[in-house]
Amino acid sequence: MQPLLTITTISKAYGSLTACDRISFDLYPGQVLGIIGESGSGKSTLLRAIAGQVSLDAGDMAYRDRQDHWLDLRTLPEPQRRRLMRSEWGFVQQNPRDGLRMRVTAGANIGERLLDVGARHYGDIRREAAHWLDQVEIPEARLDDLPSTFSGGMQQRLQLARILVTRPRLVLMDEPTGGLDVSVQARLLDLLRSLVHTLHLSVILVTHDIGVVRLLADRLLVMQQGQVVESGLTDQVLDDPQHPYTQQLVSATLVP
Q1: Domains, the chain, with CATH or none
Q2: What one-character DSSP code corresponds to residue 96?
Q3: Which of 67, 80, 155, 252 is most deeply buried (CB count within 10 A of its CB)?
Q4: Sign of dihedral through CA atoms 154, 102, 168, 45?
Q5: CB-count exposure of residue 67 (10 Å: 0-12, 13-18, 19+)
Q6: Are the C-beta atoms of residues 24 and 7 closer than 8 Å to each other?
Q7: Strand, coil or helix: 118
Q8: What are φ and ψ of residue 102, in 5° steps?
Q9: Is-contact 27 3, C-beta < 8 A?
Q10: Using CA atoms, how far apart are residues 11 and 34, in angstroms rounded to an integer?
């Protein structure tokens, strides 16, 4: 099987601070890759670099699109990158307000993504928006409500619906359960796991929460000070950590 995304020795520094240091990995169709590390480890910089929000100092990134063409993400023209983010990719923000338009209705938030990929029939767009509200467990009756009237957990689920309506192949997630209380987190994680499996999504998931990656991720990268210090199958890395930093992260979660 060919990878969907190939990252090769990418690096990014801010002055004397190296945020990403020669990081390489492949992501395959239907695979969830978790990236964990403490604050400042470089995991969010890595995610933003893949999304094109951060310019790299070195390395290569290539993505295989729906037409089976390899795209060089470092040289991709900005209009093509924006089109890619609106169709084949999605970015789940930690704060859902950053991923939603708060002044338009829930249905309009979802419908905008459909307009971006060429949908024009109002009735079809509205039906599809209602369908995706149902998929993320939001009542259809909330279709014409503003996101500001939703709870934090519902806003995060609405952000998911907005992204998934175009059936993306790759979804980037930045701390998707951050800021939510424990019961809401559990419900969202169950939903994410179900959607990832049902839609055969490829996901890059950045989090500091080992419980989240254990539940969702197939493979794991552990980052410290801009470097990947350990990688492998999630259960293997978490159940038998080899690097002292990974051992420290795992033991910290076991303390009552």
Answers
A1: 1-88+168-226 (3.40.50.300), 97-167 (no CATH)
A2: G
A3: 155
A4: negative
A5: exposed
A6: yes
A7: coil
A8: -75, -15
A9: yes
A10: 19
d(CA 161, CA 46) in angstroms, rounded, equals 24
Q: Would you give per-residue pLDDT tens digits along the chain (256 residues)?
A: 899 999 999 999 999 999 999 999 999 999 999 999 998 899 999 999 999 999 999 999 999 999 999 999 999 999 999 999 999 999 999 899 999 999 999 999 999 988 888 788 888 899 999 999 999 999 999 999 999 999 999 999 999 999 999 999 999 999 998 878 888 888 889 999 999 999 999 999 999 899 999 999 999 999 999 999 999 999 999 999 999 999 999 998 764 4
What is the model's pTM? 0.94
Amino acid at 23: I
Using CA atoms in the order 24, 214, 253, 26, what is the torsion angle rounded to 10 degrees?
Answer: 0
